[in-house]
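quick one if you have a minute, typing this from the bus. below you get a single protein, a line of residues and a line of whole numbers that encode the local backbone shape. could you go over both lines and see whether the tokens make sense for that sequence. anything you notice is useful, everything is just below.
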Amino acid sequence: MTDQGASGLAVPASARAGDPRAAADWLLRNVASALPEGQLAEQLASGRKLRVKLGVDPTAPDIHLGHVVVLRKLREFQELGHTVVLIIGDFTARVGDPSGRSRTRPRLNPEAIEANARTYQEQAFRVLDRDRTEVVRNSAWLDMPMSDLFALASRATVAQLLDRDDFRKRYESGTPISLLELLYPLLQAYDSVAVRADVELGGTDQTFNLLFAREIQQTYGQSPQSIVTMPILPGIDGVQKMSKSLGNHIGVTDPPEEMFGKLMRIPDTVMDDYYRLLLDAPRDRSLSPVEAKRTLARAVVAQFWGSEAAVAAEARFNRVHVERRAPDDVEEVAIAAPGERLAVAPLLADAFGISRSEARRLVAQGAVEVGGERLPRDAQDVPATLVDGAVVRLGKRRFKRVRLVDAASARPDATI
């Protein structure tokens, strides 16, 4: 039997009732690893409520579905009564996590870190239970006197740090490694000491850092944490991990129609990963790939925006991408018309906020429609009567309805 928690997660009744074996089996679904083997089950069998840590460096303002994979697992611990300790790495963000990096990460200024931290925290609560989450910033303990930093540094060796695959490769290839980067795993490990973590979660790219924290905890006389790593969710390109910097992400605050459209773009080869990691469900093999993708997109959008928004997002997708009609809610923009014909590049630049060179490139690619008719690839200008009141489509997803007005009525930058 299962019991639907407030989060919508189907929690086995035996796990919620306190059966440690059932709890461990449920919590370890879909994980990449749980180390040391059997330790989490022993911790659960103790009956003690665990402190489950996740550390995040606010290097970007928004979280995406790749982050949600780990946040959902944290929420499962909360459903069983455990406390999540969300560490906002406002101090470690000044260093930059070198995990998986072939070169030094650019450093952020304090203002950007603070702004990112605020939005990241609020967005995390779209998945986590606020009442069962402790939010702390690691500057509270890492902004330490030099003597304390020396004491911390004495607990690790350079040889230990160079065991990291990315550090070792960079060292062997002669690629510079800053002393700050070498300090990063040590600082992150001390986070576990500061919050007395029982369990730490992270992606598979964090395995070294999480295991290293166990060693540092023991030097401070603490019981070492168990670690749970989650698979990395591929981006919508199906190749690289989801990342805003790579432009292959789906943000948790993306509008429903945008979220739905991006999910419909994922390759069939990664659909099973999305079902397993975001829905905890198998893909229905009786459905065609397109229908399976629609089912996935509806379910994910409903998680963040509700079922009505999911239905509306699918209807909009159908209208735009299947029926090839403009959506009902096209934004209207006023453009000043100096004569009977309008130059195409300035028109598109003003309506969509793009450069004139990009506008010319899109026209040459055949990616511009006015009133449902594709513009010729060599179009330089169009009749004003054709444009006035028409919906202009740029590429597959951008639409604007253009109203021509006299120069005095248009916004200052919308003149042609």
About this structure: Residues 1-6, 100-104, 412-416 have pLDDT under 50 and may be disordered. The first helix runs from residue 13 to 16. The chain has 18 helices and 15 strands.
